[in-house]
Amino acid sequence: MRKLRTKLLVVIGILMMVSGAASAASVSTAETPLPPTHSVYLKLDGIVGESTARNYERWIELTDVQFGVSNGSANSAAAGGGGSAGKAVLDHFTLAKSVDSSSIPLFQAALAGTYIKNGQLVIVTRGDSPAPLLSIDLSSIILADYEFDNERETIQLKFDAIKLSYFPTRPDGSKSPPTTGGWNFKQNVKT
Predict the structure, then answer these.
(1) Which domain holds residue 136?
(2) 168-186, pLDDT tens digit by residue?
(3) Which of 3, 25, 136, 158 could form a disulfide bond with 121, CB atoms 3.0-4.6 angstroms apart?
């Protein structure tokens, strides 16, 4: 009976170790982020990046893009002020990137308040046949803010006008005509 109990304890111990290793493996897998499915590139007049990607050579490679807009009429309507059209506001247009050849020109442009005539941001699918998914054209650009943290740079852009073009893909993989739309913040009109 004693030998059976010892064997049973050994088997339980082995099962616990195997179970612990399996759960540790599943935890580490769950914590491992998935690789990005898209690449993001930025082109600004007069500023050169280090991208070597086909069709985006010398563009600036971005690691993150976030932006938001609002409209003053939403606040007045919520307060019972009616539904009149308000002024569209670009709340933020924030880009993140790693240090590269564009870092110093971007830093200087932010300090000097340099006007940049045009810019374009393109989100591109990754894989064997990379294709643009979303293109954002900007005009009359100012670098409103520049922050540096270790090797990560965060840049905020302000601009007069934006045009977005989305390139949908059909189920067979072919591209449909783009859906486009934009806004001129200076004139407060749809473009």
Answers:
(1) 35-190
(2) 988 888 889 999 999 999 9
(3) 136
